[in-house]
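sanity check this record:
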Amino acid sequence: TEDHPLLSLNGWVKAKEIKIGDWLAFPKPNLTNTIKDFCSISLDSDLGFLVGRFIAENNLTRKSLKSEYLKKDRKILENKYLSKWFEDKLLPNNFLDFDIDFLKGIIRGYLFRNGHIDNEMLCLTSTRLPILKQIQSILLALNIPASIQDRKSVV
């Protein structure tokens, strides 16, 4: 509602008083770092990089991954839970409980495929808002400020 209070850098303001460009506060997600492996697969930085790369790319398929990382460890693709992440291109709901190095690897992999620098700002792109929100949560939990902006493509 228009009268709903929101916390801004200037204190509490009504929603109707917020303007484009105003900064709003919201709770920082917490990383629990409690899940170190998943179904007998170590959640390390290298696997995180692979997962990040995969969820960033719409046209990257499980078959193309076999030629890279998965020849080294085929049980990853054969794992029905990890396979679901690859099919959905989305992390499970408890992703903030995963190993911190694994999450950092996801960020590196995602940046590798869908990241660039624009006006000295790190930018991540996607047509899928849910994965951007997950990536944003990881960045915020790592004390890296992150916002999501809708940028229409210019033709």
Notes: The mean pLDDT is 79. The two ends are 36 Å apart (CA to CA).
